[in-house]
């Protein structure tokens, strides 16, 4: 009887620890591409993305907590136009040589039941750090049937003013507001 009680206590302890602990995920760079859109002289909306992203996400939906730590390589900007990419990497815009990373760090996640719906944190871009709110309109965790690994995915959006980050070349002709969309997938560690 004592052996059964001890075994039940051990199983119960293990379950309660896993319910309290956040689960850690590593960002999958093959399925994570922050993208942006900006007005080009009022004629069109130009779009691009960043091709190299890394980071960690911790989630504890049952407790309504977690954290996000994402890094984007500024030199990985991709627009489909090599000449434009070179200009955007240069001193007029991202200055990738001087500021090689864009980061987003958050420990304030908002859940609706077990659904992640927002993240508030600090974005550092061009050497300037500002508070940013990400709205999350899609969030799903489950078994990835291709990799057979637990995976979480989300789509997050926000709008920033590039001049707030010291990137004001050609404002207002080239738009100051930049819409950002981040599709992200992360695999359980």
UniProtKB/TrEMBL annotation:
<dbReference type="InterPro" id="IPR007372">
    <property type="entry name" value="Lipid/polyisoprenoid-bd_YceI"/>
</dbReference>
<dbReference type="InterPro" id="IPR036761">
    <property type="entry name" value="TTHA0802/YceI-like_sf"/>
</dbReference>
<keyword id="KW-0732">Signal</keyword>
<feature type="signal peptide">
    <location>
        <begin position="1"/>
        <end position="21"/>
    </location>
</feature>
<dbReference type="Pfam" id="PF04264">
    <property type="entry name" value="YceI"/>
</dbReference>
<protein>
    <recommendedName>
        <fullName>Lipid/polyisoprenoid-binding YceI-like domain-containing protein</fullName>
    </recommendedName>
</protein>
<feature type="domain" description="Lipid/polyisoprenoid-binding YceI-like">
    <location>
        <begin position="24"/>
        <end position="187"/>
    </location>
</feature>
């Amino acid at each position: 009887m004592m052996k059964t009680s001890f075994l039940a206590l051990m199983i119960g302890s293990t379950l309660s620890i896993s319910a309290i602990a956040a689960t850690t995920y590593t960002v999958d760079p093959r399925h994570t591409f922050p993208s942006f859109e900006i007005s080009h002289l009022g004629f069109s909306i130009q779009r691009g993305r960043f091709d190299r992203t890394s980071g960690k996400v911790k989630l504890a939906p049952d407790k309504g907590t977690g954290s996000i730590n994402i890094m984007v390589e500024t030199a990985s900007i991709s627009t489909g136009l090599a000449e434009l990419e070179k200009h955007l990497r240069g001193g007029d815009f991202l200055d990738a040589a001087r500021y090689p990373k864009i980061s987003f760090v958050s420990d304030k996640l908002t859940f609706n039941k077990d659904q992640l719906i927002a993240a508030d944190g600090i974005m550092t871009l061009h050497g300037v750090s500002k508070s940013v709110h990400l709205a999350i309109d899609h969030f799903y965790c489950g078994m990835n049937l291709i990799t057979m690994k637990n995976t979480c995915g989300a789509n997050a959006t926000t709008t920033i003013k590039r001049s707030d980050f010291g990137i004001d070349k050609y404002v207002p002709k080239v738009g100051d507001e930049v819409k950002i969309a981040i599709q992200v997938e992360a695999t359980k560690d």
